[in-house]
Amino acid sequence: MRVLGVDPGLTRCGVGVVEGVAGRPLTMLGVGVVRTPADAELGLRLVAVEQGIEQWLDEYEPEYVAVERVFSQHNVRTVMGTAQASAVAMLCAARRGIPVALHTPSEVKAAVTGSGRADKAQVGAMVTRLLRLAAPPKPADAADALALAICHIWRAPAQNRLQQAAARTAPARTAAQNRLQRAAAAHASHPAPKGRTA
């Protein structure tokens, strides 16, 4: 499995490609950052992010794209830029028919370090160890992108099993719902006789 991880951001959008399967050693194929100038117009910055991600998709041809799920309770302005960059990454993948997976920061941290509350240094150290790198990728956005890709490779088999189980039970669930609807319709069209009054 080859996964492009995207740590979305307008100023620095981390990107990293990891290949492998769960339970086996993983290989980093590439890591970097798509940068845009903070003083540029928003539309131009989003175009720059799109062009950067398109180049990574062209070069590495990933089977999946893993993007950090955006949420925050604090700085709305920062979250808006991150969400816009995230949408660009999803659009680029969807246009090529590449499946996109969203992972929360705590899911990624837990998958890579064992703790959903790990800090950036711990994530960088574990990414370095898991991918057998000489040094942690810089900046942290790049390491986070690799962590996203690793998280998806490790979580995908379990997610696939859940989706397959849901697909197998869907026909039975639909049939049961149809029987209930028919029974309700039959009951509505044939109301019970009213009791006699004295």
From TrEMBL:
The keyword Nuclease applies. Its cofactor is Mg(2+). Its EC number is 3.1.21.10. InterPro entries: RNaseH-like_sf, RNaseH_sf, X-over_junc_endoDNase_Mg_BS, X-over_junc_endoDNase_RuvC. Mg(2+) 1 binds at D7, D141. Keywords: Cytoplasm, DNA damage, DNA recombination, DNA repair, DNA-binding, Endonuclease, Hydrolase, Magnesium, Metal-binding, Nuclease. Its main location: cytoplasm. Belongs to the RuvC family. The RuvA-RuvB-RuvC complex processes Holliday junction (HJ) DNA during genetic recombination and DNA repair. Endonuclease that resolves HJ intermediates. Cleaves cruciform DNA by making single-stranded nicks across the HJ at symmetrical positions within the homologous arms, yielding a 5'-phosphate and a 3'-hydroxyl group; requires a central core of homology in the junction. The consensus cleavage sequence is 5'-(A/T)TT(C/G)-3'. Cleavage occurs on the 3'-side of the TT dinucleotide at the point of strand exchange. This is Crossover junction endodeoxyribonuclease RuvC.
